[in-house]
Amino acid sequence: MSKRYFPLISALLSLLLLAFPVNAKEDNSWDKQFRAQITEWKDAIANRDPGFKEWQQSEMDVQTLGTGQHQWLVSIKKSGKQVGYLVVGEAPDPDPKSKFVLLEYGLGEYILFDDAFAPREIAAEPVYDGFASHWLLTQNPGTHMVNAKTGESYPTAFVANDPVMGTLPAAELVHSGQHLTQTRMLKQQAADPFDQIGWVHQLQTTSDITWKQLWQEKEGTSVTLTVPLHHSEVLAPFVVSSLHLWDDQNAYVGVWDEGLRFVPYSYAKKVGQFYLNQTSSPAE
User: What's the predicted TM-score (pTM) here?
Assistant: First the structure.
């Protein structure tokens, strides 16, 4: 090697060595902030809602959802058993104090994008959008979807709706520094929406149950949330279980769906309708 090139190469190497610690420090800072935030939310839910008691002293695994979505699935385990999950996103306009938002969380052994239900095809990509979450399988010819919660495969003719969860303002989502302040229970045990079918008779009516009305319902009241999916090819009904209020302002609705899952109330109102069942038996 000619000596006249040595100083230039040395200078470049020095610059690289100087830059690397800075990048490593930034990456470490982001990871530290992310870990601290999901731990804070997990503990806030576990300590405030008795139903999430299993989350106390639990462990977390993190995986990225999709490519470039800035969303992460946090799997929560205790003694090797799956007990729930969080779905976390990066705020659209993050600031140092509010970098992340809580998109969804759930309780139970079956989480979103569970390996037990994952398609075996190599080209399966996880796509998160609340109740419309799915694996997207690219095959010849065309593509098709697999439900991210149940593993149900949809017909190839089904097409996903435009994403909704990502359009919600950060102000309507739980963000950094917020705490779970109030909870209400409507259905303590897992329930099938077809056990009480009053909501079926109301499908052609305009339903407008507000958060205030939901919050005032007594325990044992049967409320159903119906969500049309894939351009109304599928109607997915869910029994409302419980309600969470963060910092007395950000509302989340818990529904039974192979476990308990909570989504923002503002999201639920955008994609579906709430019905207060007026009948007490399927026969009615």
Answer: 0.86
Task: Work out the pLDDT band at 116, boundaries 50, 70, 90.
Answer: confident
The rounded distance, in Å, linking the Cα atoms of 113 and 234 is: 20
Residue with tokens 């470039």: 68
231-244 residue pLDDT tens: 999 999 999 999 99
Task: Tell me the C-alpha distance between 63 and 249, whole Å.
Answer: 29
Q: What is the DSSP letter of 108?
A: S
DSSP state of 195: S
Any idea which residue has 């010849």 for tokens? 140
What gap in Å lies between CA 252 and CA 230, rounded to an integer? 23
- Going by the DSSP 8-state scheme, the letter that residue 97 receives in this structure is T
Q: Strand ranges (DSSP E) for 2-147?
A: 59-64, 71-78, 81-95, 98-107, 124-127, 134-138, 143-147
Cα 283 vs. chain centroid, distance in angstroms? 35
Q: Please tell me the distance from the alpha carbon of residue 231 to that of residue 208, in angstroms, as a whole number.
A: 21
Beta strand residue intervals within the chain, DSSP E:
59-64, 71-78, 81-95, 98-107, 124-127, 134-138, 143-147, 174-175, 180-185, 223-229, 234-246, 250-256, 260-264, 273-276
